[in-house]
Structure formats: C-alpha cells, structure tokens
C-alpha cells in the first residue's frame, strides 16, 4: 500500500474511483469532498493507464487531495493564491511518493 493511501486511511479519508466527467482539454485527476471526507480518483483516466503507471497515478492523486484535506483540517495553512495551493499540493504528493 502506498504512503498516500496509508495516510488517507489513518486520517479517516475514504478513497474511491468515480467517473468525474468530461473536462475537455483539461484533465481532472481527482477531487476532494470534505463531507465524507472522500477523495475520488477519476476512473476515466485510471482505466486507460497501463498497470505499470496506475500505482503512481493513484498515489499522486490521493496525495494531492490529502494536502487539501490537511488545509481543511488546519494541519497546514491555506495559502491565498490558488495556483500556489495547487503547487503545494503537488509537492506534498511527490514527497509522499518518495516514501513508497
């Protein structure tokens, strides 16, 4: 099990696959729903990846959304600029991937 999935479990965040719809040229890999809390990984992307890439995709998607969960629970400060928040979420996901 990846570090991102381990942390999601420890924090009580459910992880599921869902069809997140068509986004045109953009690609929505995952989304965070604080009501669950739940992280949804986009099935439309995952089902087309080779098995050699699937684990990393899931780990990065879950890690990214875990950062947003941590913002929501005040474990990390919420940055004001959206682009900066997304960059920080990507960096957090990469740091978890390095622990796998």
Q: What does this molecule look like?
A:
The chain has a 3-stranded mixed sheet. Helix content is about 50%, strand content about 15%. It starts with a helix and ends with a helix. The mean pLDDT is about 95. The protein has 4 helices and 3 strands; from the N terminus they run H-E-E-E-H-H-H. It is globular, with a radius of gyration of 13 Å. It has about 100 residues and is α+β, with helices and mostly antiparallel strands. A hairpin with a 4-residue loop joins strand 2 (about 30-35) and strand 3.
Mean pLDDT, rounded to whole units? 94
Number of helices: 4
Rg (CA only): 13 Å
Spell the H/E element sequence. HEEEHHH
- Side-by-side strand order of the widest sheet: 1-3-2
Find the structural class using helix and strand composition.
alpha+beta
Question: Helical content, roughly?
Answer: 40-55%
Strand content: 5-15%
Biggest β-sheet description: 3 strands, mixed
User: Any low-confidence stretches, pLDDT <50, length ≥5?
Assistant: none
For the secondary structure, the number of strands is 3
What is the 3D shape?
globular
Distance between the termini: 8 Å
